[in-house]
Amino acid sequence: MECLLIIGLMEKPWNTANYLVTAASNLGFRVVSFDPLSEGASLDALERQIKAHRPTYALIQRGHGFSVEWNEALKRQGLFTLLWYPDPDVPDWLVPLAKSVDFFFTMAEGNIPKWKEAGIKQIAWLSQGFEPSSFKIDSISEEDRRFYGSEVAFVGNIDSTNHYLSRRYKLKRVLREGFDLKWWGPRLGRKPVNLPIFFSALGRAYGGKFVYGPEYAKVVQSSKILLALDRHTHIRLSMSARMYTAVGCGAFYMCEAMEGLETMLVPDKEIVTFKGDDEMIDKIRYYLPRESERSAIARAGQERVLREHTYQKRLERMFQIVQNRSSVA
Which residues contact 166 (CB under 8 A, 6 or more apart)? Predict the structure, then answer.
């Protein structure tokens, strides 16, 4: 049984590295984990882990807190190092590490040319996924449905930074059209720019907390429509993990259209997409009273995610890609 070292942030239960540990264990790997930002983390501590467990591969999730020096130390000890970056951008700080690892994976297929321009040679696209065991619920009570439920739900950040402002505008539009909306996520910071929101209909629509795990599943299953507002829909195949998580939990998922999306989940059969605010409102208005159509789409999407889009399936694909490229080389 091969040993896989998973390196990433693990302090919070919703950190993706925790999902990867579960998925890799289910695949039969002997898994060792290391959080580079945890108390006491150091190259010496990492090398002690390697000496004790002798991993074959090191999978670095995101790369925060992990240096080129540390990666080169792993390679000197014979590990094959992999980096999987889960955001749809090409940050300068990550380029040296992406060059240093043996293989780099991006979740945004449309960014591959940019990564290659930055000098990354061994690269492939690998979309994010879903870890079902982290979102299991036995049942939903009527009290749960009253608390978590709404006609339209949104889960995410709507803070005052510029890249979240479009989300505010769209959610305000949903409210202006008279729909029952609840949004869940981090509390807005107590700063002057947010004061108008606190006293607005959007502020009153706040569910009251950040939700994850079983609570997230309760929001999804208690709401008629789960509205997704990703920020980088212009980038081909750059879906966030939110899509797989929501649909895997049973959501009727409505999101902005994106090039290539139909290869992962089929619009109007497994999810619903829209282009522009007017079509978003039209489709909300169309689907809200059509429970049977919503249920059929949600069920088909969930079945597809559980069959094809789990993190276990993603890791299988990752090692297929690595092995195929290695055999060609």
Answer: 229, 231
- Tell me the per-residue pLDDT of 261-305, one tens digit each, with 9 for 90 and over: 999 999 999 999 999 999 999 999 999 999 999 999 999 999 999
Domain count for the chain, please give it.
Answer: 2
Collapse the DSSP code of 279 into the 3-class scheme (helix H, G, I; strand E, B; otherwise coil) and give the result: helix
Residues 6+ apart with CB under 8 A from 24: 4, 6, 31, 59, 315
Our CA dihedral for 131, 133, 135, 138, rounded to 10 degrees, sits at: 150
Dist. CA 81–CA 205, nearest whole Å: 45
The one-letter amino acid at 42: S
Query: Is the Cβ–Cβ distance between 149 and 223 less than 8 Å?
Result: yes
Pairing status of strand 123-125 against strand 152-155: unpaired
User: Nearest 5 degrees, angle CA 120-CA 122-CA 126?
Assistant: 100
139 — alpha (psi -120 to 50), left (phi > 0) or beta?
Answer: beta
Q: What is the CATH number of the domain that holds 44?
A: 3.40.50.2000
